[in-house]
Amino acid sequence: MKVAVFSTKAYDREFLNAANIAAHSNHELIYFDARLEPKTAPLAAECSAICVFVNDDVGAETLITLAKQGVRFVVLRSTGFNNVDLKMAAELGIKVARVTTYSPFSVAEHAVGLILMLNRKLYRAYNRVRDDNFSLEGLLGFDLHGRTVGVVGTGKIGSIFAQIMHGFGCQLLGYDPYPNPNFEAIGASRYVQLSELFENADIISLHVPLFPETYHMIDANAIGQMKPGVMLINTSRGALIDTKAAIEGIKSGRIGYLGIDVYEQEDELFFQDLSNTIIQDDNFQLLQSFPNVVITAHQAFFTRNALEDISRTTIKNLTDFEQGRPCSNEVKQPEKIPATTSVE
Ligand code: NAD
């Protein structure tokens, strides 16, 4: 089957080609660097399927163009599917599938990495030592042991993140409308209402999908309920946090540390080398200027294990569609994300 694969880098091509060969699938993968959006949708001419990533625009306008060209299947190389207009896809008879599960350890471990960067100021220490500055002034950290960690969303990633933090000796507060036995089985963990989590957590980590209900769930009101000096970690989706409210929270000292792998307007920035350009996003530049903010560019998923899982599932999704088999990873509208009961 001919597949237009958007937003690809060398590593995507390497892993997808390997998975295509390993599965003896023979899909004709046509790679594009370009991000999918209405004006690049014509690149998929003569393709029955397209393959996209987190910042591709699979909105109504794009889908209409794709449908006119004969595209009948959209396969996401991601877990999240907030960038797809599922209603329009269904109306146009376009099926959508995603990678329901891939190494959740990749993201959970990255969230922990952001915490350690911030609480021990490792990013500052690294630069200082490279400059032969061996002073410890300004690097004073705090022990994680005994701290209370709030886990918002205790699905696959959140529950593994919670297990790791339990290893540090942290108390765990969870919030999830669909409780996960894996979270409850961790010692020193309990489910609470979101407001109680906000009020009591020293560190809050977000592991919920971006839905209309979770858009800006961390706004000025939520930040106002948090402990002064709280550490906020987001490895899920940028728009869970109202960026302007977070900036105000940092300025007032309510947020003591911010670690983000995702950013609300990241589609204009991430996955490209912009080191020779003038960044026009003032909010992003402001965040970068704060000494207690660490930003990584949506790399939490980026481990060899995760890329192998993503590519294998993507090829399988394409083959299921080609052969008319039911696809277990199909995303239907509307979808309720169920709580997970295993940590595979
Ligand atoms: P999951 O479906 O296993 O878990 C999500 C959990 O969120 C579920 O338990 C669900 O019940 C819960 N939830 C839904 N609405 C909620 C709400 N309003 N409040 C609290 N909890 C709510 O998903 P996962 O595999 O753990 O992934 C979580 C998110 O991580 C994804 O949706 C994606 O956005 C993000 N992600 C980021 C990266 C990255 O590279 N940064 C990679 C993969 C996934």
Question: What would you say this structure looks like, in words?
Answer:
This protein has helices spanning 10-22, 60-68, 86-91, 104-119, 122-130, 156-167, 181-184, 194-200, 220-225, 243-252, 282-289, 304-322, and strands at residues 2-5, 28-31, 49-52, 73-76, 95-97, 148-152, 171-175, 189-191, 203-206, 230-234, 255-260, 293-295. It is of the alpha/beta class and 344 residues long. The protein has 2 domains: 2-102 and 304-331, Rossmann fold; 104-295, NAD(P)-binding Rossmann-like Domain (Rossmann fold, 3-Layer(aba) Sandwich), CATH 3.40.50.720. The chain is globular. It contains 12 helices and 12 strands. Strands 8-7-6-9-10-11-12 form a 7-stranded parallel beta sheet, sandwiched between helices. A 5-stranded parallel beta sheet has the order 2-1-3-4-5. Helix 1 (10-22) links the parallel strand 1 (2-5) and strand 2 (28-31). Bound molecules: nicotinamide-adenine-dinucleotide. Residues 79-80, 104, 107, 152-158, 175-178, 180, 207-210, 213-214, 235-237, 261-262, 298, 300-301, 337, 339-340 line the site of nicotinamide-adenine-dinucleotide. Residues 79-80, 104, 107, 152-158, 175-178, 180, 207-210, 213-214, 235-237, 261-262, 298, 300-301, 337, 339-340 line the site of nicotinamide-adenine-dinucleotide (NAD).
